[in-house]
Every structure is written in structure tokens, then in C-alpha cells.
Amino acid sequence: MAVVIGVDAGGTSSRAVVATLDGHVVGHARAGCGNPAAVSASHAYAQLKAAIDGALAGVDRGGVVAATIGLAGIEAVTAELEALFPVPPQVVGDVVVALAAGTPDPSGTVLIAGTGAIAAKIIDHTIVGTADGFGWQLGDEGSAFWLGRQAARSAVRARPGLLTELVLKHLGAHDHEQVAVIAQAAPPLALAELAPLVSQACEEGDPAAAEIVERGAALLARTFHEVHEPGTPAVLAGSVLTNDGPVRRAVRELLAPSAPVTAGPGEAAAAWLAARTVSPEAPHRAFLPS
User: Fold this and answer.
1) Hey, how many other C-beta atoms are within 10 angstroms of the C-beta on 136?
2) What whole-number distance in Å separates Cα of residue 182 and Cα of residue 117?
3) Would you tell me how many other CB atoms lie within 10 Å of the CB of residue 148?
4) Cβ contacts of residue 223 below 8 Å, gap of 6+?
5) Domains in the chain, start-ordered, CATH in brackets?
6) Distance CA 72, CA 87 (A)
7) 213-233 pLDDT, tens digit each
8) Angle separating helix axes 246-254 and 195-203, nearest 10 degrees
9) pTM score, two decimals?
10) How many Å apart are CA 201 and CA 209, to the nearest integer?
11) pLDDT digit string (tens) for 186-215?
């Protein structure tokens, strides 16, 4: 039985799927962050190996005919990466996988807001333009990290309200002054863990959280419009934009004229891209049913 491997290596987790050429899933697994641009190479490759090996458990490796991995920051196959797969993998940008997760069209615009944030214009599954994606130090506006940092900034300034209460409780801080100490002692990207608190507080009417949501959505919409060509498909991806919540709803409202669709699982899209290298007519709907 011929099968393909699809891997989506995100900043939070790595997900792998093994499927037949007609989209039937025979293996699936998840592990930690597998992006060498976000963590050490040894840790990233260990997590990717865990996800790939887990998905291949019980599957004849000799039946693997193609593999695709969506990975930010790496454009070529390294020896370490190739060693993880039964066959040499095709490496594509995570934004290319995200577009394929939302539409079979090879061209369009994808807006991703997960731990980070980026928008990309894609033509024939090739990135031709991007906006933001500058990392937590210089950009990623509207991302989970950005939302979490705004929440921490609001709490450290002792702005009264539910959001501050939730942040203090989450961090185990006794008062607002401890927020800075705890935040600075943790890895920077840990602030992304506070993003759900913004959504929770906003849903319950907290003014500070509502302001953060409104501003974050506006920043994401601006990023999208920097690269979007009207009339082409638009896809929303990443946890901030695929999980129901106030940011997702606000962004969808702002981008309503572009009729954005929500991306499905990135690993399924990567598997479809892999299948297309062997069978160009591989049905998108079979891998990503709407």
C-alpha cells in the first residue's frame, strides 16, 4: 500500500499524518515544537522524530512514496531532516501548508496568527511576498505572544479588572509588581500562554481585554492587506484565528469582503501536497473534507 507522510512543524507542536494517496489516514501523531528556528536543533529534530515515528507505528515504511513537511525558516532539506523520513522529504514554508489547508487553489493569501503572526501572498504554492513574521522581538502583531504580552503589560500596571486578576492568578503572582519578575524569569514566548485570558476576559466584558482584542484584530487585518490581492482566495490559520474567540470573530468581520476561509489541519494539507508529487490529481477534499 502506497502512503505519504505530511508534517506540520509549528512553534508549539509538531503533527504528523500518514495517509494513502486517496486521503485515507492510517497513522497520526503529535509531539512538541519541531521548528529549529524556535528551539534548539537537537530538541526540534527529536520532537519531529517522535511525531513521524508515532504516525508510522504499524505502517510499512517501505510503502512510503513521498513526504512533505511545512516548516518556517528552513527552505532546503538538511541531512538531519532527511534522516527522519523513509524517503527524502519536500520542505515547504508553513504558510504554503496553511494555504493548502484552506483551499486547493495554488495561489492566494494566508494570514497566520499562532504563537507568531505573518501574512503571505502565494502563487503556485510559492511565497512571493510576506508581511510581518518578524518574530516576537520586532513584530508578530496580533499573535498569541502579542496578546499575552499586552495582558501582562496591563496587569503589571495594575489596571483594575478581570484581566489583571486572571493574569495574577495564572502566574501565581501576589501583586502586580511580581508580574514583571515572573515574566522576566520565564522564556519570552511563555507570554503566549496568557492569550486565552484575554479572550476570556473580553467575553466577560473586561474593558482592557476588549481594547487588546480590538487593536490586535486591527493589526492582523493590516498585515493581511499588505499582501492580499483582491479576488484571490484568503485563508486564516493559527490557533488565534482557527479557535472560536473574540479575536477570530473581529478579524473575520474586518476581512469579510475577502471572504476568508479557515484552514484545516496543516499535517493533512502537507500530506495532500506530498500526494500531489506522486499523483497530481490527488483529491484535496479527500485529505481536507470541508
Assistant:
1) 19
2) 25
3) 26
4) 111, 117, 118, 119, 131, 132, 141, 142
5) 3-101+264-287 (3.30.420.40), 132-262 (3.30.420.40)
6) 21
7) 999 999 999 999 999 999 999
8) 80
9) 0.86
10) 6
11) 888 889 999 999 999 999 999 999 999 999
